[in-house]
Structure formats: structure tokens, C-alpha cells
Amino acid sequence: MSDRTRPDLDDDAVAALGKLSEALETVDQARGMLYGFHQLTGKADLLLQDAVAGFRDAGHTELADTLEHDLVGRNVIGDRWTFQIVEDFDANYWSTFRDLDQQARDQVAGGDRHVFEARMKQRERTTGHPRHEAGPALDG
After folding, report:
1. Is 52 exposed, middle or buried (0-12, 13-18, 19+ CB in 10 A)?
2. How many other C-beta atoms can be found within 10 angstroms of the C-beta atom of residue 138?
3. How far apart are the C-alpha atoms of 104 and 41, rounded to whole Å?
4. 19 with 130: CB under 8 angstroms?
5. Which of 19, 90, 111, 118 is at a distance of 20 to 30 A from 96, taking alpha carbons?
């Protein structure tokens, strides 16, 4: 279908698909933050190891030993490093959310994405004005 606004679909269903899409986009943002948390925590552990070496070189062996023993390589959340948190989130929440979003789009809109947004674009654009074109069409 070349009309991305899908006039054949019920307004309430399109609105619900739009909310589901927005929810998934929010989960994607959360996932990005989780990956940021993962990377920053890993960087902090490497910096901590540098600090431990610095304290050891400066003769503060007991402090270095305490930091190394109690913090270096520590689980950040009960029994887990951050890569395990990311993997669990991806496997048990994010992938399920994406799959169900796809299922909803398949069932309601034949798999079409962003129908709600396409309708919004159509409402808000100025017909015939440069840079306000309706396209490109889905098929081309």
C-alpha cells in the first residue's frame, strides 16, 4: 500500500499502535541508557584499578588492598556484572517487547510501521509547499 496514512484503519487502532510504538521507543531509550550504565561502570572499574595501582606505588598498600579486595570486579547488582544485566534485559524484556510490537503491527496494520505518525505528517504538512512532500511512498 502506498498511502502510509492507511485510511482503511480505525482511528482508535491507529492511536493504540502509535502508543505502542512510543512505548517501544521509550524502552529503546532505556536500553541505550542501560548500555551506557554498562560501559560507564566498566570504565569506572578500570579507573579504580589505576587508582589501586597508584595507591600501591605511593606506599598505601593497605588502602590499595582494601580497594582491590572490596571493589575491583565487584558485582554491581546481586550476583551480576553489568553485561549480565544487559543480556537479561535484552533476552527477557526488550526482545519480547519488540516481538509483540511486531505482532500488533502485523495483526492491525499488515506490518506497516508509524501509521500514526504518517497521519500526523499528513495533517501538519502544507500541501504543495517545498519540503512538505507526502512521500516517499512505501513501495518506492
Report:
1. buried
2. 13
3. 36
4. no
5. 118
Closest CA to 5 of 128, 121, 105: 121
Q: Grid coordinates standing for 20?
A: 505502542
Q: Please, what is the Cα angle at 57 between 56 and 59, to 5 degrees?
A: 65
Report the sign of the C-alpha dihedral through residues 70, 55, 81, 39, in that order: positive
Q: Please write the tens of the pLDDT for every residue from 7-48.
A: 999 999 999 999 999 999 999 999 999 999 999 999 999 999
| Local structure of 77: helix, strand or coil | strand
Grouping H, G, I as helix, E, B as strand and the rest as coil, residue 2 is: coil
**Its pTM surpasses 0.70:** yes
HSE, CB side, 13 Å, CA atoms: give it for residue 126. Answer: 3
- How many Å apart are CA 54 and CA 49, to the nearest integer? 9
Distance CA 49, CA 73 (A): 9
- Per the CB < 8 A criterion, the answer to whether 77 and 83 are in contact is no
DSSP class of residue 92 equals I
